[in-house]
Structures are given as structure tokens and as C-alpha cells.
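Case study 2.
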Amino acid sequence: MGQKNVLEIHGLSKSYPGVQALDKVDFALAAGEVHALVGQNGAGKSTLIEIIAGSLRPDGGRIVINGPAFKALDPAQAMELGIQTVHQENQLVEELTVAENIYLHHLPTRAGFVANRDCTRDAAKLLGELEIPIGPQRKISSLTFIERRLVSLAKASSLHPKILILDEPTASLDEKGKQILFKLFRRYAETGVSVIYISHNLGEIIEICQRVTVLKDGKKIGTHAVKETRLNEIIREMIGRASTSLHQRQRRETGREVSLEIRDYHRPGVLEHISFASRRGEIFGLGGLVGSGRTELARAIFGLDKKASGQLIYEGRDLTPRNPKDAVRKGIGFLTEDRKSTGLVTERPIFENISLVQFAKTLGIFMNLGREQSETEEMSRRLTVKTPSNQQLVSNLSGGNQQKVVLAKWLYARADILIIDEPTVGIDVGAKGEIYKIMDELAGQGKIIIMISSDNPELISICDRVGVMYHGGLAKILEGGELTEENILRHAMGVGEGEGPK
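Prediction:
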């Protein structure tokens, strides 16, 4: 590119127990460059930027910033070197003014007291220079989503950054909001600020970035000049391999009659009027990137989160739950992503965990303990939970067997509709196959199964159809020959069919 590098990463590595988050990664950022960092969930993007920002210490490698080399940085050191990060989540103080938030960490003072007039004056000047039309004395609580994002950028600008890390800066913004931000990013580049731009939207990357680096499974796959690269090439590098079947599910005829309808689930800024239908015998998958709204949809369907609109129609009846207790009563089960925190009581026996939901349904009615133990033992056998006894504490089971106990809990409570979020996270390959087989058998018994997964090959292997979510909306429902890793990733990143070149 010709510009001097302001940041160079050489052989950066970081591991956690059982996971190589970064594996000898090299990366370079030029002065005044907007450089995209892309990759699927778990590729290593967050680990890399947290190391650059000083929040994480690497296991090996070097970080070179404008000449000096470092083995690691701490947050204060990174800030001193001119590194600023604008996170996707709002990190502003709601009840303070725009000016107070911008200068929160370096408020102007006089005689030991905060100089509010100086703070407001300086903020007004900065906002004017950045062409951000927001009054410095307005409270953050009164601002729109795009205005808050702009204030976050102004806050970072107040510290005169040399390197600005933007993590999904346009998430949840409409086209007008995006263009406002893009104009600001171009101004940064003109003044020599270098930007690391993380986004799942490849269209944005083509529009705003000069180069793109692809990470996969903790490794750097390649760096390309955007003008010389096609979207298809980036997507292929992100996938890194052909789809492989993890479980050869035998597809069955599901019939034409719809059993479940999800109608117009909407929550402003979170879910955008989502509708789909499913039939008995079918496993319906929900794909998309982290933050696309998959889990938020599951929580809304189960009655955990409020919604502006939405109906769940089952066998022609409106079974929309008012809350989780109502969902359980109506035969809806939700296997959460974090089984240990929200799915199990790990320091209690297996039989108590299996009967937990049924016990809550029948609260106030005496339970026959002998019958409870025999029935939960039968349920445990049906799902092949490997244990010497149902008296065993759940904490002593493997991850795969714990997941079977969660499934058993909902089956014992006679759930007809099962929403399963990330069913095989933290489970070994052998146990995954067993979980897939159980889900297949349940679908064959007529259960309605909605499965959320970040593992695209898993979705292809186990699901009949996959709805791909993007920025809170249902971008596309894929089935048959359309159901490929490349197509899932395309729609998850806002790139539809026929948009191959640029």
C-alpha cells in the first residue's frame, strides 16, 4: 500500500484449556488505513483485538507499535500508545450528559473541581469538528441508538487515537445511520487515524475498507486488497473447507400440513417481524452469527423476554406463552445455551434434575417419590445417560450426558415443542452423534424441534431447513440443494445470491 505500518503483529498466540484461540497470527495496519478483520464465530477476532487493547495477555509473539516492540500491553499502556476501542455494546453512562461522557476519563478541572463550562465548550468544539449534530448538554438517556454510537466515537476521538478498533460499529443501524458513520470513518482516515474494522457485513467492508484479513480457527488465512478481491473468495477462506457431514440423518417425509407457526415476532431494535412455519417430523434450524438475534428469538418465543408482537400457533391453536411458566404449561421446552447455569442444578442428583420442570408444573400436589425415581430412571435409560445410578450428582457427568439430562427433563415434562440452543457446545464428537440421534428420534415421534447452532456443518447435517438470521431479521430459509455452508454464511453476513463479485 505504500504507507508506513503503525501496528505490526508477529506470531501472536493465545490458548485456553482445550482451545487455541490464536495460533502464530501475523497482522499489519498501515497509517490512515481502514482494515477489516473477518471470520466466523470463534475465528479469533475478539481475542486479537483484546490483546491489542491490552485486555488480554498473549502466550507468545510481539506487538510492534510505531517502532517499539512489546510482548504484551496493559489497558493503560495501550491508551497511552493511542489505541482506543469502541465496543458494540453501549458503554455510556445514561444519566450523564454527552459532554460528561465524552470527557469522562479526563474531565477538565479548575482548582480541583470539575469545570462543567469548559467540558461543555470542548465537547461542542469536538462534535462540530466531527460534524456530529448533537447538543453537548443532552443526557445520554434522551439519545437515539445512532446518536449514542456517534457519542461513543466522539469519546474515543477526544483521546486523540492513533489506532481505533471498531467492533461491529453498524450493528442494528439502518442505512441512513450507516452512511453517517461511514462519513465519520473516512474523516478519521483523512486525519491519519488507522482503523481496525470488525464486521460481519461483507458489503460494508467492500464500501469502507482498503484491506481485509481473514481469520479461521485462530489462524490467519490471508490478507487482501479489497479492490482486488471478490466476496466469494473471502467467504471460501472463512469456511476453509468443504462441508462435512457429522451425522447422516435419514430424512423422512414430513407431510404438507403445518403444525407450528411463528407469526410476526417483533421487538424494536432486536427482532424484526420474524415469521416461519414447521411441520411434524422436521428439525428446523436457526443459523446466523453471534448477535444476529437467534437466542433473542428463542427467549421471546418461550416468554422470557417482552415483545411488541408475536404469536405461536400450534395445531391451529394460539399457544403464545405469557411467561416461561405459561410456556411450560403449554408444552413448550427451552434448552438454553448454557446448560450448567440455566439448565441444570449440578449439585443435585440426576433424578431430581429430570423431574424439575414436572415438579414445578405440579407444585402444590404431592408427588410419589418412588414413582418419580422409577419414571426418571426409565427416561434416563431411554436417552442412554451413562451413569451407575440416578442418584449420581449431575456435576459428575460428562458434558454430553449432562445435555441428555436436560433433554430428559423436558421430555419428562411432556414438551411437544422443543427449542434447543447450541445443543453440542462443549461436547465430544461421540456424544454429539448420540445427541443428534436422540433429536432425530424425537422428530420421528412428532415433536417440533427448533435448533439454534453456530456450527454450520451441524445445521446442514441435522436440519431439514435452516432459517438464517441477520441483524434481528430472518434473511432466508434454506432447504434442499440451497442448504450449503456458503449460502448460510452469505445470508448471515448480509450477502444474498447473485452478489458474488462485489
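The two ends are 21 Å apart (CA to CA).
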